[in-house]
Amino acid sequence: MRAYFRLGPATLVTAAFIGPGTVVTASLAGANYGYALLWALLFSVIATMILQEMASRLGIVTGKGLGENLRHLVQQPLLKVLLYSLVVAAVVVGNSAYQGGNLTGASLGADAIWGQQSLVLSLKQHSGLNPWSLLLGVIAIVVLWRGRYQRIERFLIGLVLLMSLAFISTMLLTKPDLGAMFSGMLLPTIPSGATLTVIALIGTTVVPYSLFLHAASSATKWHNQPNKAQALAESAADLRTAIPLGGLITLAVLSTAATAYFGKGLQMENAGDLALSLQPVFGAAATYLMALGLLAAGLSSAITAPLAAAYALRGLLQLSPQWFRLSWLLIILVGMLVSSLGLKPLSIIWFAQVANGILLPIITLCLLLAVNSSLLGTYRNSLRQNVLGAAVFAATLLLSGRTLYLAFFS
Predict the structure, then answer these.
(1) Which value, to the nearest 10 degrees, does the dihedral of the CA atoms of residues 156, 160, 162, 167 take?
(2) What is the pLDDT of residue 1?
(3) CA distances from 278 to 105, 164, 182, 301, 308 (A)
(4) What CA–CA distance (Å, rounded) separates 236 from 238?
(5) Has domain 10-409 been given CATH number 1.20.1740.10?
(6) Cα–Cα separations (whole angstroms), residue 32 to 61, 191, 203, 260, 321
């Protein structure tokens, strides 16, 4: 009997987009607007499933990642230079900047759980560094250095399940308003001042580097599977499980923040505040579960972000295994430096956001062209898939336009 649910390469996508940025965005959405923006989360999950299905199918059928397929499709020299430059700027430079945030977010979770240990306090006082950033960075390096794909996948599945347990348990402890939750999910509204939060909720879920990650990991996962139809069925079951699970995790964070903050006149600065604020009302268990979820979210993204950048570079530039390893290693080291010293590379992050804003619709369009090309033979897009893909492309175009406008004129 064919499995309807399973966990596989799509779990890497969930591990990638459920990072500290998503946790903070969902927390602020819930704290400031209650459940009103859940429709944006639902849309982002659906859009992610549509795009990631195409990326996975491309990887399975061609046996190559998105980068390799783009290299084959884009032959005009000027277009190739422009596309490669955008990918390097958005995926490689961007993930290097965001890596510091991944490790900092994971550190907040670790600090909420073990921060009062005397050894931790001593290291902070005498070195001026964040010891958690260094330790978590080393863990990310060890996982990627020693792990074959199967081991990395299993490790990330474990982190995603840990996040699920932590965040969903926290939500249940805080007893959300189910009526308001379903209303916010099914009746789209944008409260006054919420436009930026809507963009952020969608933008933290639908990201271009996840397409490189999923296509390459799917090609690796099913490279020995001669039955493409069977591999695609397994991938579909994987998508049905992992991406909605990521949406459920985000919903749990938003719901917890809505219960703890919305309508109570309280201000929240970051997700660490959310973890600490739960204890007086909901007990220590809620605080520790929230902190554990934040730790798992940061660590999972700290592993997948460098890996996605390395996959993109390998595909476009035909990197050798040594250069592939060096590329993700450098990104982790940059993140460790940024996080451990408490730096805020705002100009680099701004640059990465602009590059991402330009890249997302371009990569979406390239993906649509690839899955309609002769590369996929009988597995090309159907009319229904093209209609859905075109709708998501239009949404990414609007999202990116708004992101660029805000980056330059806000």
Answers:
(1) 150
(2) 43
(3) 18, 18, 23, 24, 34
(4) 5
(5) yes
(6) 44, 10, 18, 11, 46
Share of the chain above pLDDT 70, in %: 87
- Per-residue pLDDT tens digits for 135-179: 899 999 999 998 778 888 888 999 999 888 888 988 888 888 899
CB 298 within 8 A of CB 98: no
Is pTM beyond 0.70? Reply is yes
3-state secondary structure 266-296: CCCCCHHHHHHHCHHHHCHHHHHHHHHHHHH
Give per-residue pLDDT as tens, 346-355. 566 666 666 7
* Cβ neighbours around 55 below 10 Å, total: 29
